[in-house]
Amino acid sequence: MTELVGSPPPIPASEAVDALQLMIRDGAHRADPHPAYHRLRANTPRLRYESGDWLFTRWEDCEAVLRESRFSSDPSHRVSAIPMEERSMREQAAASGELRTLLFLDPPDHTRIRKLVSKAFTPRTVERLRPRIAEIADTIFDHAAEAGRMDIVGDLGFELPVTVICELMGVPVEDRQQFGPWANNASRLLDGDILTAEQTNAGLLSMMEFINYFNGLFDERRVQPRDDLVSALLAAEEEGDRLSPEELISIVVLLFIAGHETTMNLIGNGMWALLDHPDELARLRSDPTLIGTAIEEFLRYDGPVHLTGRTATVDLDVNGITIPAGEGVITLLAAANRDPERFADPDGLDIGRQDNRHLTFSHGIHYCLGAALARLEGQIAIGRLVDRFPNLELAETPTYRDHFILRGLSSLQVHVG
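and the corresponding structure tokens:
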């Protein structure tokens, strides 16, 4: 049984749940989840499962949860009747602290660690990277021009941000190719219960590969520090407080994975949206100054992060609904970003949209640390791509990866003319 909260819904609870489960597990629904999201949001905007978890799909509700700091990102606050031995390997690892990252920490630890890292990702610091990012993009486009074809996801979406984050962190760029499969597998751990045992094992193994690699890099930088982020974190001291070994490895792995996965999905999803809306592509070509609002629209229209979760640490009110302490809330960002109560013509792509307070980068204290970098990389990659190749043509229909929480294409093959 599932309890529906709010006005009596015109559809049965089981049907609402089935629609969500079908969307998660079925490839056709994953390709276009928004019909299911619209139905859930219109008919069952606040869904409460018997486990005590809630699902919110309205922008107003999701924003309220993300803004409230007493909704915790730390899953240990969640009341669970499931014994540890019956939980999945992924849940056990998270509970034991092996997978704890900045994503799942609360103040004061979250505040302390974020302060140490955030200096490298301020808008002013990121802006200094513009010439180098443009140089990397142009090199990629030169190769594409010679080939006459490119995969916007693999050749640009992966290569550009992974090169940038490698250079920032001091990771040898020649090592970057091995990171793609590791990041793909490790990032799937976010999907939790919908994973098979094989996928969970692959994710945990890839996480260990990352940990082993970066521990080796830490040893090198302790002996020979360089002007890079890893060396800076090793030497970091803010008001007498250093990163512990566990904190150091977790933040570096997070920065590396998040530092390219989000941007890769932004570039792929954004270019697919443009190719699927040729009038908007022509509009951007005719007015390149729209690239800033275009990136915000891509983040809203088909964002790289599908949902995020919080747990109430005390009884909390969300627009008239009480969430008891210990109960979890899933904020379905993709649904909130197309809420017709918040966005005019929510299913339409408008690269000049002005009122665009999407929730893709979250909100509140957990607002995405790398948002400025992702925006800049997206602006340069997409802006220069559509300018460089005026005859872009889709080579094959793209498909989405099996990931759920991180949403992106497996490839986007185009002829560049």
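(Above: one complete record from the training split.) The first strand starts at residue 2 and ends at 4.
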